[in-house]
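Support request from a user on the community tier.

User writes: "When I paste my structure tokens into the form, the page sometimes reloads and wipes my input. The last time it worked, I copied everything first. Here is what I submitted, just in case something in the input itself triggers the reload:"
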């Protein structure tokens, strides 16, 4: 197995591999965001200082992707949400997701974040038991209910 390299993408980087994995992730997890919206938002995210678009690569191939966005609030100061974490099926169980999470945590620590969260969809939990995975990474539920409203 080749070495795995994780890096944050910027606005001048080739974003095609990251966008394709995000599209694949969204289709597998049954999200309905159109491909062009995913590509456009990935390009915007790559250019924002308060966001991170990370990829894991092996032998020049993108094998994993993760995204994170910082926010500032009264309760915690700087915090964030890891919005996406996806690793190609054949690379799962090989530490790729942990490398991506570690890179995100370094990014957040460098920017003064004190906490970050993830949101598990019922589909993702049922299909992959992601709560157990995130529990092993130190995440814990805090009893809050997240509600969303489209604008």
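"...and here is what came back when it finally went through:"
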């Amino acid at each position: 197995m080749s070495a795995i390299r994780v890096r944050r993408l910027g606005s001048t980087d080739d974003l095609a591999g990251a966008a394709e994995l995000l599209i694949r992730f969204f289709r597998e997890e049954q999200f309905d965001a159109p491909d062009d919206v995913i590509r456009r938002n990935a390009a915007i995210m790559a250019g924002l200082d308060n966001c991170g678009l990370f990829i894991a690569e092996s032998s020049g191939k993108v094998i994993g992707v993760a995204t994170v966005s910082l926010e500032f609030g009264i309760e915690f100061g700087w915090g964030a949400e890891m919005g996406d974490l996806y690793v190609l099926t054949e690379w799962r169980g090989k530490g790729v997701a942990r490398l991506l999470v570690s890179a995100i945590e370094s990014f957040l620590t460098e920017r003064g974040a004190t906490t970050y969260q993830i949101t598990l969809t019922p589909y993702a939990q049922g299909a992959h038991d992601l709560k157990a995975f995130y529990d092993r990474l130190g995440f814990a539920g805090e009893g809050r209910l997240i509600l969303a409203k489209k604008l």
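Agent notes: The reload is a front-end session timeout and is unrelated to the input. Residues 23 and 35 are 6 Å apart (CA to CA). The first strand starts at residue 4 and ends at 8. Escalated to web team.
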